[in-house]
Design goal:
single chain, mainly alpha
């Protein structure tokens, strides 16, 4: 990270700087992908003053590149920022740190607005890994990720393999009371029943590409999500009687 900061402050030419930055990000990705100690070093949790600092820097640099770079460019460095963040979410400490920084809003912005399907896939994976830990669900609910992901899935705004990642995210959110309350509060069952039947919500304009529901995703929702939502609905009906 210090090397990356040094490159940001350097006077390298506009053609040379992206090459060195990409090489640095690739190195950091390889280190955090293969070594848990490298993740701990990046998180700096043992140092009260530096805890989370490098993760914040990654978020700031990612936001800067999102505002200035385009998918058509030969080097889109955003994928490396997201890949490093994905590596961090493979540890509980990494998940917690990511959710307490600016990353949730960055991930959601990418998921909702990026025309690059690879960037959306990586963002979805980061959120899905965080959702696998119920202790993170309060922070996830507060980030509005649940409604955003339900929208993208029900409207067919993603193709495979991102569709399955979104479905797995929703299934993970059912492991806690805050997650289940959120799903019930946005009437997710109504949308997910349609997805399980292979139907997509085509409302909201024609400017966005709509994808058919993948059969595996429909089966996953049918067997791993809807039965539990049905149980909740049945419980409500019994209380009303």
């Amino acid at each position: 990270m210090r090397l990356l900061d040094a490159l940001e402050a350097s006077d390298l030419s506009a053609t040379t700087l992206p090459v060195y930055k990409e090489m640095t990000l690739m190195l950091l990705n390889n280190l955090t992908a293969s070594n848990v100690i490298a993740i701990q070093d990046l998180l700096q949790l043992e140092d009260e003053d530096l805890a989370g600092y490098f993760v914040t820097r990654l978020s700031m640099l990612y936001a800067r590149h999102s505002a200035t770079e385009h998918v058509s460019e030969q080097r889109d460095l955003r994928k490396w920022f997201l890949q490093i963040s994905l590596n961090l979410t493979r540890t509980p400490d990494g998940q917690r740190t990511l959710l307490t920084e600016d990353w949730p809003s960055q991930l959601l912005e990418t998921l909702n607005e990026s025309p690059n399907p690879m960037l959306r896939f990586l963002s979805a994976q980061c959120l899905n890994n965080c959702a696998a830990t119920p202790a993170n669900h309060v922070a996830i609910v507060e980030s509005t990720a649940v409604s955003a992901i339900l929208r993208r899935l029900s409207k067919g705004l993603e193709a495979q393999p991102t569709q399955m990642v979104l479905a797995e995210f929703l299934a993970s959110m059912m492991q806690s009371e805050p997650g289940m309350n959120c799903l019930e509060g946005i009437n997710s069952r109504r949308f997910l029943v349609a997805v399980a039947e292979g139907k997509i919500d085509a409302s909201g304009g024609d400017e966005e590409v709509r994808n058919a529901v993948d059969p595996e995703v429909a089966e996953f929702i049918k067997h791993h999500i809807l039965p539990f939502l049905d149980e909740i609905q049945d419980a409500y009906m019994q209380e009303e009687e």
